[in-house]
C-alpha cells in the first residue's frame, strides 16, 4: 500500500440491527481534507481511538480493540460504538491492506461543536518497519507522571484508563526521553510505582515469573500484553499483575515494551542500568504476535 485508505463512518445507535452496514461507510480520499474546522477532535483532542496491527491483510485482535474503544467511549461519555458496524468497517479497511505490516486506526470524536452526532472514521496505512528495533531493543528512562497510583479513582475526569486523542503529553514524554539520550520512557506514579510507557505496556521478567502493572484504571490495559500473557501461559510460565515499586526496575531478568504495531521490543537499559536481553524469547514473542490472531 503506498497510499493511505480512509473511510468515514456514519455512526448508528448501539442497538440498531442490520445485516450490512456498507451504506453507513463513505470512502474518502485520505490525502484530501475531510474534517470540519469545528471538529472537537482537532480543537480539543476530544475523542477516543485505537490502533490495530495488520499482518498480511489480517487485522489482529479486533474484538479486544473494539471492546477497549467502547470502554474509552463510555469513560468519555461518548455514544458507545456499534460493535458490528465498526467490525465491518475494520474488515473493509483490512481488505485494502497488502501483504506485510500495516496499521488500522479507529477514531471516534465528539464531532463538530454543537453538532448532532459524533464523527467517526477509520484509516489504513503501511506500518513503519520495526524489524530492527524488535531485535536491537531500546533504552528507556523513567519519568514521573505526576499522579499517585489512585488517581483514576480520585479524579476520574483525568480519563486515565481511556485511550483518548489527547496524546500531546505522551508525545512530550517521548521527546523528553530522547533529550535524555533514551528511545522511550516508562511512566512512574508520583508515589513511586511503575505504570506504562507513553504508547506501550511494560512486561518484566523475574526468574520464571512475568509481571506487568495491574490495570487498575490508571493505565491502559494493553491488548498486546494480554496476547503475550496468553502465549506465556501456554508455555507454562507464571504471568501475573502486580503493584510494582519503581525500585524493582533495577533488577529484572528481562523487560519488554509491548504494543499493537511495534509489538515486543526488548529493553536494553533503564535509566542507564543495563538490562539482560533474552533474544530467543523476544524472537518467539514477535513470531507469535505476527501470526494471525483473533
Ligand atoms: N499504554 C498506552 C498509553 C498506549 O498508548 C498503548 C498503545 O498505544 C498501550 C499501552 C499498548 O496497548 P496495545 O497493546 O493495545 O497497543
Summarize, please.
It contains 8 helices and 14 strands. The chain is an alpha+beta fold. Belongs to the class-IV pyridoxal-phosphate-dependent aminotransferase family.
How would you characterize this protein structure?
The chain is α+β, with helices and mostly antiparallel strands and 294 residues long. It contains eight helices and 14 strands. The chain has helices at residues 40-44, 62-75, 83-95, 131-136, 151-154, 168-179, 223-234, 279-290, and strands spanning 5-9, 25-28, 47-55, 58-59, 101-109, 119-126, 138-144, 184-188, 201-206, 209-213, 238-242, 254-259, 263-270, 273-274. Helix 2 packs across helix 3. The longest helix has 14 residues, at 62-75. The mean pLDDT is 96. Bound molecules: pyridoxal-5'-phosphate.
- Total count of strands: 14
Morphology: globular
SS strand fraction: 25-35%
By DSSP (H or I, 4+ residues per run), the number of helices equals 8
Major sheet: 8 strands, mixed
Mean pLDDT: 96
**Per CATH, which architecture of the largest domain?**
Alpha-Beta Barrel
Instruction: State the helical fraction.
Output: 25-40%
CATH fold name of the largest domain: D-amino Acid Aminotransferase, Chain A, domain 2
Low-pLDDT residue spans: none
The CATH superfamily of the largest domain bears the name: D-amino Acid Aminotransferase, subunit A, domain 2
The total tally of domains equals 2
Specify the structural class: alpha+beta
